[in-house]
């Protein structure tokens, strides 16, 4: 924090903008209103490295071997939460149930599911 203001690195801002654009292109509904408790499930899918052997590929696709690469899970989650703030929900403080994970897949992608937390 500099001069009492939070600083977001340029790369993070670009990534958040990409998340926002994709969300807008895929989701055509109003954000969850203030006060609604939410459940957030995020799966970060990492592409299997080309150098992986067939045995390694199978272990990665089956979930036996999981990605332990950067970014760390908590920072990746926070970036998604911040990007969707005011867009998918009024405020990320509404998230009362969080289920993040990192896995391997054929193609890299991020899967996000937001539902009301009515448990």
Quick structural summary:
By secondary structure, the chain is an alpha+beta fold. It contains 3 helices and 3 strands; from the N terminus they run αβααββ. It has a single domain, classed as 60s Ribosomal Protein L30, Chain: A.
Sketch the major β-sheet.
3 strands, mixed
Helix proportion:
25-40%
Low-pLDDT regions: none
Could you state the CATH homologous superfamily?
Holliday junction resolvase RusA
Order of helices and strands: HEHHEE
Q: Averaged pLDDT, please?
A: 92
How are the strands ordered across the major sheet? 2-1-3
N-to-C span: 37 Å
CATH class: Alpha Beta
Q: What key attributes describe this structure?
A:
119 residues; alpha+beta; 60s Ribosomal Protein L30, Chain: A; three-stranded mixed sheet; 3 helices; 3 strands; 24% strand; globular
Characterise this structure:
This protein is α+β, with helices and mostly antiparallel strands and 119 residues long. The chain contains three helices and three strands.
SSE layout and pairing:
Elements: H1 10-26, E1 38-47, H2 54-62, H3 73-84, E2 95-105, E3 109-116
Parallel strand pairs: 1-2
Antiparallel strand pairs: 1-3
């Amino acid at each position: 924090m500099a001069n009492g203001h939070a600083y977001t690195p340029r790369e993070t801002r670009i990534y958040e903008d990409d998340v926002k654009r994709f969300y807008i292109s895929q989701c055509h509904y109003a954000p969850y209103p203030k006060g609604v408790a939410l459940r957030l499930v995020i799966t970060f899918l990492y592409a299997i490295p080309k150098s992986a052997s067939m045995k390694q590929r199978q272990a990665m696709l089956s979930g036996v071997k999981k990605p332990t690469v950067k970014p760390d899970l908590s920072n990746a989650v926070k970036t998604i939460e911040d990007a969707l703030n005011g867009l998918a929900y009024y405020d990320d403080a509404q998230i009362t149930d969080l289920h993040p994970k990192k896995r391997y897949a054929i193609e890299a992608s991020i899967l996000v599911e937001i539902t009301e937390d009515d448990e």
